[in-house]
Amino acid sequence: MALDKLDFRLLRIFSTIVEAGGFSAAQGELNLSLATISSHISALEDRLGLVLCRRGRSGFSLTPEGRAVYDEVLRLLGTLDQFDARMRGLRDRLTGTLTIGLTDNTISDPNSPLEDVLGRFSDEAPDVSLNIVTKPPHELLRDVIAGQVQIAIASFPRITLGLTYTDLYVENQRFYCGRGHPLFAMDEASIDVNEVRRHNIVARSYWGSRDLKVFAISSPRAVVSDMEAEARLILSGRYLGYLPEHYAKQFVEAGQMRSLRPDLFGYKAPFQAAHDPAQMSRGIVPLFLKILTGGKQKTLPAKVPA
Hints:
By secondary structure, this protein is of the alpha/beta class. It contains eleven helices and twelve strands.
């Protein structure tokens, strides 16, 4: 005998009556009148060709056939509930691709939690594919606006309206010279802004003139778009420039670089995660941000630059 949608509804009504202990007791849960309940059970009995229960002055009781039908109904409804749960799981399962944008040479920063974050995200969203791109900060912001990158992690030189920024950590920046440079062996007390201005200074293209502001010079002698290029120029012994302290550490320990006057030239670069708030409707974006911030997100809407 094939079942249809009506049969399933009648079977659920029947199971509710049995579990409630009778027609009257099931009225509240079913929100049906006694006459309607009785009509439904009669229709089910006609459909099955069986007498399922006895009702009357002597009370409600199941017939042997009714008990057997109830047992089968429990199995059937249990299977249907499992099916519904699996379908919900399929709908809610996180899939697709998450594109994350990073800046170069941050892997040596002990403040960056990214490796652990990527591992935990992979565990929690195993069906999501990760696409990681490395670009300068200003290009990452452009790609976030264009929808090509969902989350960008960097120290951003400017605020872009319409994006949301989440504070992560700070990166220590120091000003370096390489071995062979005239300042490498100079006494620290003799090095000041005026002395540094006499030498070639490297600027990062994405920071505009910020690297040069303290030195009050109009233009740099070299411009780079990434940390490795700047490190190469500094290691040449002909240029001075800023590098993340964690990245320059390897060269300092090898005696190839020296930090110059951190009290004058050092600063802290705030790292943030930038995203388009419209992307929060995609479950993978809020999940990654939650893991990235340890569930303690402090989001900062973009403000007009001062």
